[in-house]
Amino acid sequence: MKRTHPVKVIAVTGGKGGVGKTNVSVNLSVALSEMGRRVVLMDADLGLANVDVLLGLRPKKNISNVLSGECSLLEVLVEAAENLWIVPASSGTQEMTALSVHEHAELIHAFNDISDQMDVLIVDTAAGISESVVSFVRAAQEVLVVVCDEPTSITDAYALIKLLNRDYQMTRFRVLANMVRAETEGRNMFSKLLTVTDRFLDVTLQYVGSIPYDESIRKAVQKQKAVMKAFPNCKSALAYRQLANKVDEWPVQNSPRGHLEFFVERLVNKG
User: Fold this and answer.
1) Which residue has the higher pLDDT, 89 or 83?
2) CA-CA distance, 162 to 7, in Å (whole number)?
3) Res. 98 pLDDT band, cuts 50 70 90
């Protein structure tokens, strides 16, 4: 049976911690699910699970149980909202942060089993530029780089883009400014990043907008809810809906890329 459409696979990354990447992953997932898209959000911070904590979920199984062969990926999915399922990571498990290339490939391959049940897969990567982060980012079709207004955020985002461009010939990245005080601040951040990438790298960056600094996000985190659900009319929730509309319009890539193209057998529509 042919799929009518391939799955859109988006890696959310940032180079450093503290940029609000997991909040972006969670709320973008919620916003897309509210548009009727079937979304799976994978917590790819394999040793420090935080998506389930952010959403107040208490999963009985997680990704480590899939890798050990105890259960299928379908069995670890946790329904977080209508049209939204979470693939939880394990917490405080050191060996999960050092998976072999083969284990990463197995994990990625496991998604073939659930490909028919989703329209969008969002991968919330760990902080930094470890092999694990690189594996997941390389395997995605879209890379959303989250930056915030700290000097280290721009330099770390640049380091990640440089590594992916230099070592893996990746050339296309989308950039989201998070926790901005004004829209101009977001554009300024993007300009700083663009200045250095234009000078030293052969890459294309696209600015996808910004998420405003919003106290509601902190309050939502305390409630262990997505801000989209806790405060649906706050300014950040409105920004997430705008972001989701843009993401929904991104064309789905029909050609595989890299040796670990996510779920290439089933997710890429080969006609």
Assistant:
1) 83
2) 27
3) low
Tokens 């290439």 locate to 264
pLDDT recorded at residue 231: 97
Topology of domain 10-249, CATH: Rossmann fold (3.40.50)
Alpha helices in the chain (DSSP H): 21-34, 51-54, 63-67, 73-76, 101-110, 131-139, 151-168, 183-200, 215-223, 227-230, 235-249, 264-267
| pTM summary value | 0.90
Buried b (16+ CB within 10 A) or exposed e, 54-66: bbeeebebbbbbb
Contacts of 52 (CB under 8 A, 6+ apart): 43, 58, 59, 78, 86, 88, 89
Burial of 136 per CB tally in 10 Å (0-12, 13-18, 19+): buried
